[in-house]
Write a structure and sequence with these properties.
With 188 residues, the chain is mainly alpha-helical. The protein has ten helices and no strands. The chain is elongated, with a radius of gyration of 19 Å.
Length: 188
């Protein structure tokens, strides 16, 4: 393994360790020394990778930004089929990469008042609701989804997914639910 690969591997270990500790203990109750000890490495060496705990937080938020924002309409695919397949992909990926469960929890935490403002603003920039509203409205127009406020329905859809991911983060033995269950909340 080259030095560059070793450095990248150690950087990823720091990120994944910080993610776990931030979810389990909270951002403010996690010290840089806690992260360094869990990696394991010296606190001084860790500062060669991240200048501060807030820089580490921002890097994790940037990773989280690449998640559910990718939801969007696919021409020729029925809205319910699309959402079902989308959920299957999320659950499958999270099953292969368990840190994804923690990322859902983490991004929810960072969006709350009291977190460092730059990280909070970045986390709040993720908008999975707006594209989901469009998908739900299309499904309503086609008679697939029930009538109702599409914005509220989209928020309930995402809140359900968030809750599932939080439960799966807390209980490593929990199996992913059938995506059809979530989509059935929307069906007419």
């Amino acid at each position: 393994m080259t030095r560059k690969e070793q450095k990248e591997e150690r950087r990823n270990a720091i990120l994944m360790t910080a993610l776990t500790l931030f979810v389990e203990r909270g951002y403010y109750d996690t010290k840089i020394a806690d992260i360094a000890a869990a990696v394991p490495m010296s606190t001084g060496l860790m500062f060669h990778y991240f200048a501060s705990k807030e820089e580490l937080l921002l890097e994790l938020v940037k990773m989280g930004l690449q998640g559910p924002g990718s939801v969007g309409e696919v021409p020729g695919v029925a809205p319910d089929v699309y959402l079902t397949m989308f959920l299957k992909q999320i659950f499958s990926f999270a099953g292969e990469q368990p840190w994804v469960f923690n990322m859902f929890v983490f991004m929810g935490q960072v969006r709350r008042v009291g977190m460092p403002e730059e990280a909070r603003r970045l986390a709040q920039s993720v908008d999975a609701v707006t594209p989901t509203v469009k998908i739900i409205k299309k499904g309503q127009k086609e008679g697939i989804f029930r009538k109702g406020d599409a914005d509220t329905m989209a928020r309930c859809f995402w809140a359900s997914l968030q809750g599932i991911m939080e439960e799966m983060s807390a209980d490593k033995n929990m199996k992913a639910p059938d995506p059809e269950w979530l989509v059935s909340m929307l069906r007419a």
